[in-house]
Amino acid sequence: MTETVGRRERKKAQTRKALADAALRLFLERGYDKVGVRDVAEEADVSVTTLFKHFPSKEALVFDEDGDVEAALVSAVRDRAPGQSVLHSLREHFVETRATRRSGDPAVIAHRTLVRETPELVEYWDRMWRRHEFALAAAIAAEAGAPEGDLRSAALARFVMDTASLIRGQEDQRRAMLDLFALIEAGFGDTQA
């Protein structure tokens, strides 16, 4: 039974990746507005129904790691090392995942350009990033024993999430990220939760 579940999950992951890869390739070749979900499904050799089982919208095809990003943010808070503060754990997570990105990689540049030049994708990205912010705020509040909707937790999550956009264009993104987290720590203190 475990092998069957493992095989099924691997197949789902392969289909999801094939769809995301096909979508990105077509969007870059033809332009986002000139490609429909049917085109993407055909390119990945699946039905449109299958596409929508994996992705709720055309925009979501461009952000295939959405769920993993959110899960990793929450995990950085919940699964941090004993005695490590929430802020230090988030700093490590953001330095590793945001400040050391392959900014010179042509595939990364092409993806970023596609998103920036497509209003629907900019809007989707903003909604996605704010949804991650709310999930992060809830995790911070839970770790602090604060009530749901805690303003301090929400503010900390907002400032942390905004570091990713603030370091864009900086020559040394790692240094910029560390400097921003030093500012956040100065404002919030070295919060254990």
3D structure, described in words:
With 193 residues, the chain is mainly α. The protein has two domains: 2-58, Homeodomain-like (Arc Repressor Mutant, subunit A, Orthogonal Bundle), CATH 1.10.10.60; 66-188, Tetracycline Repressor, domain 2 (Orthogonal Bundle). 73% of the residues lie in helices and 0% in strands. It is built from nine helices and no strands. The longest helix has 29 residues, at 2-30.
At a glance:
This protein has 193 residues and is mostly helical. The protein contains nine helices and no strands. 73% of the residues lie in helices and 0% in strands.
Amino- and carboxy-terminal Cα gap: 40 Å
The portion of residues assigned to helices is: over 70%
Number of helices: 9
Shape: globular
What is the fourth-level CATH superfamily of the largest domain?
Tetracycline Repressor, domain 2
Order of helices and strands: HHHHHHHHH
Low-confidence stretches: none
CATH hierarchy, class of the largest domain: Mainly Alpha
DSSP summary, beta strand count: 0
Which class do the helix and strand fractions yield? mainly alpha
Annotated CATH architecture of the largest domain: Orthogonal Bundle
Rg, Cα atoms, Å: 19 Å
Write down the overall mean pLDDT.
91
Measured by DSSP, the beta-strand proportion falls in under 5%
Q: Quick one: biggest sheet?
A: none
Number of domains: 2
CATH topology of the largest domain: Tetracycline Repressor, domain 2
